Amino acid sequence: MVSRFRPARRLGLIGLLFASAGCSDWLSYDPGSLRYIEAEAMTRDLGPKPNLHGKPKLQAKVRETMARLYGPDPQFIRVPKGAPLMLGGRYLASHLREGDGQNARDRRIYEGDSFQDPKLRPQSGGYTVYRRNCLHCHGVTGAGDGPTAAFFFPRPRDFRRGIFKFTSTPTGARPHRDDLRRTIVKGLDGTSMPAFEPILSPSEIEQVVDYVIFLSLRGETELALIEEASISEEGDNDALGEDIVQEIVSGVFTRWKSAQAQVVNPAVARTEPTRESILRGRDLFLASDCKDCHGRLAKGDGASFVETKISDEIIFGGDPSKMADRVAALPEKVQALWKQKLDEWGNPLRPANLNRGKETTYKGGRRPIDIYWRIAKGINGAQMPGHYPSPFDDRKMWDIVNFVLALPYEPELLTEAPVAPTAGAPAVADARPR
Ligand code: HEC
Ligand code: HEC
To answer: Are 357 and 411 in contact (CB under 8 A)?
Structure first.
């Protein structure tokens, strides 16, 4: 079932792609030795003491299975058959380095190359693009734990659970390939996630999109194997057998594949951003759940979250590795709320400030369709729920989008809003002096 990642010679197209990828510095680049880091659940759920359910045999089986499916280390890439990757994974690497130092020589990967030889190391392709540009934040395993990660808020994404925030697919679904590409090309505005358009060629971007998907598939498989092992009997020799492994892998792949056909397109064209539409959107904002998180003035300070001042103090008020101590010093009630409002990855979370005048940024893009997707389907992993088809229908969706986009230029929309408008009320006449 496992097919070694083996680019074939006959694929001239790939040769062309990589030739135009501007990777002239392969020759000076040595990726060194790298290891995947195991998911924490591996020791928590299967490991020896203090865990009472120590399952060393199953733990070893998970490790072997992972190495067999995805390769034992980042430089020995394997891709199980049927992976949702371009050409079965050939974008992950395209060149190998043979020999060391002055004798080092790069050449294209040929069918039959033995990746087991430690002297052959992948050069260029998604692996290399990732190593150079992403690893210091997102980490070797894609766990969001690269050496610089702790210094950023928000933290770099952990890819291993397959959860992505800025998607065009239904709530909770895997992202579309276009979503990942958009994130990498444009970056996430207002965060440390850079836009790679200026420094990566289009083909390098496709390669690294594949590598992100590869790390997600790998991480999701690992977590599912650990979960399976944690409910299996240590003495059961059939545990984690071929059938169940196959089922896990194909479940992971299917989730990615089906998302590619599920892009949520608005059913009707955008309503013109007329005054009436913007005001209807404003009333929706105030009458629905938006204000609970984003605040009455949309400043990102709603009552459902810990006060901005306290939150800033925790996040920015000192050594990032001492954050837990700062949380522990809070009154019990605030502490409880803080913990309840962490994101899916256990990191601090803040609702966006949607009212910062010209400084207003949107991580997932500022096109009307981007804002539509955020509000319609919510933001995975960030507690922001979806709102379409309920409580918002097609028209309400565009009204709220029109309002969100107008607000930074017209903060009076909220400062001068009637105190408690009701959803669906007739558009309020615009009484402001123009
Ligand atoms: C300086 C640190 C940094 C670097 C370098 C970096 N990222 Fe990120 N990346 C982030 C941060 C921070 C986030 C999460 C932002 C958030 O959650 O709001 C992120 C998020 C992402 C996401 C998730 C988007 C989503 O919808 O959830 C993807 C995909 C991603 N990065 C890919 C890459 C790739 C590929 C590279 C290299 C080409 C890269 N990143 C380099 C910091 C970085
Ligand atoms: C339960 C809390 C919650 C509710 C309810 C909520 N949001 Fe959010 N929203 C968030 C959080 C948290 C973020 C920041 C997510 C992040 O940066 O990762 C966010 C981000 C956003 C963004 C910025 C997206 C981007 O690309 O940066 C927009 C726009 C937005 N929300 C609009 C709305 C609107 C409009 C409503 C009501 C229809 C709403 N939200 C309801 C929590 C919420």
So the answer is: yes
Ligand nearest to the CA of 157: 1
Residue type, 378: G
Domains of the chain, earliest start first: 2-259 (no CATH), 266-305+348-434 (1.10.760.10), 306-340 (no CATH)
Q: Which of 65, 59, 6, 34 is nearest to 142 (CA)?
A: 34
Ligand number nearest CA of 361 is 2
One-letter identity of residue 306: V
Residue nearest to atom 40 of ligand 1 (CA): 134
Q: First CA to last CA across the chain, in angstroms?
A: 69
Contact in structure between 172 and 161 (CB atoms under 8 Å)? no
> Of 152, 155, 166, 188, which is best to mutate to test ligand 1, by the most ligand atoms within 8 angstroms of its C-beta?
188
pTM, whole model, 2 decimals? 0.87
> Can you point out the beta strands (E) in 17-130?
78-80, 95-98, 105-108, 121-123
Give me the residues paired with residue 107 across strands. 96
User: For residue 259, which of 370, 366, 179 has the smallest C-alpha distance?
Assistant: 179
CB 182, CB 120: distance < 8 Å: no
What pLDDT tens digit does each residue of the chain (434 aa) get?
343 333 332 222 232 233 333 333 333 444 445 799 999 999 999 988 776 778 999 999 999 999 999 988 887 788 898 999 987 787 888 666 677 778 777 666 554 555 555 555 666 789 989 999 999 999 999 999 998 898 899 999 999 999 999 999 999 999 999 999 999 999 999 999 999 999 999 989 999 999 999 999 999 999 999 999 999 999 999 999 999 999 999 999 999 999 999 999 999 999 999 999 999 999 999 999 999 999 999 999 999 999 999 999 999 999 988 999 999 999 999 999 999 999 999 999 999 999 999 999 999 999 999 999 999 999 999 999 999 999 999 999 999 999 999 999 999 999 998 876 555 444 444 444 44
Nearest alpha carbon, ligand 2 atom 14: 351
**Closest Cα partner for 164 from 215, 130, 232, 115?**
215
Beta bridge partners of 105: 98
